[in-house]
Amino acid sequence: MINVRTAVSVILLTSLMAIGAAHAASPDAIDAAASKHAVAQLEAYLKSPRAERPAIAGQAFTQTPLTRADAERAQQLLWDDHVAIIRATRADEMKARRLTDSEHVMPFFYSVTGDKPVSGRSLYISMHGGGNAPPRVNDQQWENQKRLYKVPEGVYVAPRAPTNTWNLWHEPHIDVLFDRLIEDLIVFEEVDPNRVYIMGYSAGGDGVYQLAPRMADRFAAASMMAGHPNDASPLGLRNLPFSIHVGANDGGYKRNEVAAQWGEKLDALHDADPDGYVHWVTLYAGKGHWMDREDAAAVPWMAKFTRNPTPDRVVWRQQRHTRFYWLACDTPEKGAVVRATRSGQTIDLAAEGVTQITVRLNDHMLDLDRDVTVTTAGRPIYAGRASRTIGVIDKTLAERGDPASVFSAEIVVPLPAASK
User: Domains of the chain by range and CATH?
Assistant: First the structure.
């Protein structure tokens, strides 16, 4: 049996907890006895049969401020329970290699190679080409993708798109299915959530252009092969290394020209923000839509990178997701932009088209036993403690099943209409 607890122990020790519903708390020390009692209540709650448990969100102990050590203990308890639930409820879908979201079904192939690192295996999600074509054409493209790339270490997954539409890899159900795929493989194959990579060829490359910016906080790096971005924006790639591989003669849909334009956009973004927008753009001389596997150079390039789930600076161009790195928003506005910078105990926000944002925190990011200040345009909009709570730990773990991006506290702050 796979020892998942061992596989994620490094993650749990280094990423720690996040904070709970934050408010302007008293500077007094946390009540250690109350904190310990809350964790004891959580332990008793989790020992009950799952079918008999009331909703955890309604339990009073989930709102008790915790010490750092108790928050770590609570996260471990909740993670162990999560693993048990995933194993009990999803073994069949892993055995069948088929994921379902409503009416959409996504079969997938995967293979495992190399020795497992202490922190867990790498995961490569590789999307096939095709698109608006008969199912047999997309089936053939899927078969090709299964053997198109080789990884020296890790889990190589080639999913089959649930539809046969032109936009088969960037319809809304893909985000949901990929989240579930990653969550399953963290448990069943001991994948390191900080070493998940995405790539795709042709229509699969279209998907990388679209998915990577809007799901950047899930991946360690992304590589686009022979695709077209359509209406995608590179703005969300601030913390996601991104490579582009296109044949210099690939004039279909002007893929070659658009690839060069994206290279220029990424150059400009990196010049303005030298710590962000790492990228590599290559147009292969003499190659058309098929690059004779020269694009396989993307695999070792991506493998150099490990995700930082709590970067000091976040640029979130909102689309449909309600969380992005350590920011969250109940009602994201498509096209709205939030920029957040963390320095010591201070977080500065700048937003366009957003009136409220939730800042999520954990002890890996800053010291939750000291006051936190949130500013916008140089003006403080929040100052005080952010309490670690079981409620926030449970909520942020349940959202994704990602032990490296769990938070124990959060601060909800209103923003001026234009806080640029």
Answer: 95-303 (3.40.50.1820)
